[in-house]
Amino acid sequence: MRWFDILTDVLTIISIAVAAIALLQNNRITRRQWNVDVYTLYSQRYADIIHDFPDDAFANRFDAEKLPAPSKALNKSIYQYMALVSETYYLYRLGYLDQSVWDIWEVEIKRTLKSPMMMHYWIKIQDDFAVHPEFFDYVKEQQRERSKS
Predict the structure, then answer these.
(1) What's the pTM value of the predicted model, to 2 decimals?
(2) Please, which residues have CB within 8 angstroms of residue 105's CB and are 6 or more apart in sequence?
(3) Which of 5, 77, 80, 140 has the fewest CB within 10 Å, making it most exposed?
C-alpha cells in the first residue's frame, strides 16, 4: 500500500505542475492576443485621425515652411492625435501594453511630437493635458530634445 501512496503523491505533483504550466502558457497567449488586438485597434485609430487632418497638414508636419493655417478642423485633429498618444502612453506606463508594441509606436510618436507643426500647436492645447503631468512632461521632454538639436 505504501508504493501506491507514493505513486499517488507523485502523480498529484505532476498534475499540479502540468496545470500550472498550462495556466502560465494560457496567460501568455491571452496577453499576446490582447496586445495584438490593442495594436490593431489603436493603429486603426491613428490611421483614422491622420486621415482626418486637413489637406496635407500631417504629411507636411516636418516642414516649418508649410505649417498649415489655423482652423477648427486642424485644432480638432491635433487634439485627437494628442489624446490618442496620451492614451497609448498610459496603456504602456500602466503595464497594459507590452514594451515591444510601445516601441513600434514610440519612434513615430517622438518624431511627430518634435515636428514643427506639433511644437507650434502644442502651445495652444498644452493646458488641456496639464491634468496628466506625466504625459505633459513626456511631450515637453521630446520637444526639448528637438530644440537642443
Answers:
(1) 0.81
(2) 42, 46, 88
(3) 5
